[in-house]
Amino acid sequence: MANYISGLFAKSPIHPLQEHMYCVYKGIKNLRPLTKGLIAGDWDKIETAHKLIVDGEHAADILKKNLRHHLPKGLFMPVDRRDVLDVLLMQDAIANQAKHIAGLIVGRKMVLPEQMHETFLAYANRCVDAVKQALSIINELDELVETGFRGREVERVEEMIKDLDKIESDTDTLQNQLKSILFDMEDDLRATDVMFTYRLIEWMGRIADDAEKVGSRLQLMLAR
Predict the structure, then answer these.
(1) Would you say the C-alpha torsion 85, 91, 96, 100 has a positive or negative sign?
(2) CA count, 13 A, side-chain hemisphere, 140
(3) pLDDT digits over 163-215, tens only?
(4) What range defines the domain where residue 218 resides?
(5) What pLDDT is attached to residue 147?
(6) Is the pTM of this model over 0.85?
(7) How many angstroms separate the Cα of 178 from the Cα of each of 98, 191, 207?
(8) Quick check: 3 pLDDT over 70?
(9) Count of domains in the chain?
(10) CATH for 143
């Protein structure tokens, strides 16, 4: 009987979810030195950042599998099991996307046109900012549970989600600027370089898009 009752009141998965997101961010922040290396043509810096991003994705993947495996099925979890799994997949997508970006740069030995340097660095930085903001929001989950998803804490998190939306909007603006710069240069570049540079721009933007999805999922949880 005691085991049955303890099974109903399942251990909270919030801390492992927060730990996973922190691991994702630790890998993602290496997009900054990766971008600086790309702009400077510094392949030592690029390869170091690439390794840290890949290692970060691997560490996050281990945490993801552990959380999935140990995620309780008790009736009285503080948050819905489906919500936890959805947020976990969104967080995981961020780490995977960073690995794809780093792999593209290294695999193609990419060179970024000088006209794009300043805007692309701002773009990458803002995408990392989006993930950092998503991490801050996830770190409020335990407080939300303690307050029963009510009161001032909800208002605080809703403001944080608005800030995340603003950051993601900034990345959209920068992405459009980069595409415009590249469009004007197309005739002066090899077709394959143009294609893969567009891909790099799109993939970087997905980092911010996926971070915003984490915030949107939390917003749905608040609305219930």
Answers:
(1) positive
(2) 27
(3) 999 999 999 999 999 999 999 999 999 999 999 999 999 999 999 999 999 99
(4) 2-223
(5) 83
(6) yes
(7) 19, 17, 16
(8) no
(9) 1
(10) 1.20.58.220
